[in-house]
Prior knowledge:
By secondary structure, chain A is an all-alpha fold. Chain A has a domain at 3-32 and 64-109. Chain A is 61% helix and 0% strand. Chain A has 6 helices and no strands. By secondary structure, chain B is mainly α. Chain B has helices at 10-34, 40-53, 71-78, 80-98, 106-129, 137-168, 183-216, 219-228; strands at residues 58-59, 65-66. Chain B has a two-stranded antiparallel sheet. Classes of the chains: A mainly alpha, B mainly alpha. Chains A and B meet through helix 1, helix 2, helix 4, helix 5 and helix 6 of A and helix 1, helix 2, strand 1, strand 2 and helix 4 of B.
Amino acid sequence: MKVISKLWIGIGILILLSPLGLILPERLKAGDAWGEWGADYFKELTGYIPAGLEKLSALWSAPMPDYTFKGWEEKGLSGLSFAYIISAIAGIIVVVAIVWLIGRILAGKGDSQH
Amino acid sequence: MHIPDGYLGPATCGVTYAVMFPVWLIASKIVKKTLKTKQVPLLAISAAFSFVIMMFNIPIPGGTTGHAVGAVLAAILLGPWAACIAVSVALIIQALLFGDGGITAIGANCFNMAFVEVFAGYYIYRAISAGSTIVSSRRIVAAFIAGYLALNIAALSASIMFGLQPVLHKTASGQALYCPYGLKTAVIAMLSEHLLVFGWVEAIITALVVKYLQKQDPVLLKMQEEVKA
Lengths: 114, 229
């Protein structure tokens, strides 16, 4: 098998394992990444929500927020893990399609070199 | 390290976008000259790898989480300009589809992870591996050190952005408008967790894949250097 094919299989394995990135933090009681808290976090901590932060934090409504389906936030870990894998697949399909397209548009001149 | 909307004020968002647009333009011009058609699959795989590896949130028990970025691996395989494009696409899709990183902070997040990390990692790797053969074990060490240092340099850059906000934007009464944490707090918090935990993950994944490719298909590691020569 070509190495490139093996690397794609590796990506597939990582997709299937990706819920570990959800389950391990949950099990070990680790919270958000530093600087990635929701706006409410500041109310407890500093006593106020910075005004600009509060306004801008709701600026964008992503179709699959936090790598899950809208309304699935309370689905439990197995539901969230499923949504996480679907998110990984969807995200990678879009990323690969765009990068492939950019690559095909840009590549070519390099072929003549060397 | 995905800065959300609201943490950075308009000055930082504007400046980082203003830096990244010419960077993307230059990247596409350089990649147009150097990228070979047979490298396109590797470009796509590098972007996919970066996307999925960032989903592996690594917990610090009872504390925060963080993750590797895969940007140094992309830089080693493709060179810094192509890697910049690959990681930028991954970051932009994460922001648009999954709300991971803000829309207003796309410039900042791409600056930290797709520009600073990519170029730092690339030049550290080149410096350490200079003069070694493609299958030399020095390359694995170079990938390891480049992964560790470059992720930390990116974290430092992000923490400086956070820490500048209370200086740049305050209300009349002295309340912060955006990220309320100052430079010292932000730098210590972000750098310590990346130095202690997340940097090692970037180091290990980068070194492991380089080692794997040395065994399986060293040509993939050489493609990028042929282009430069």
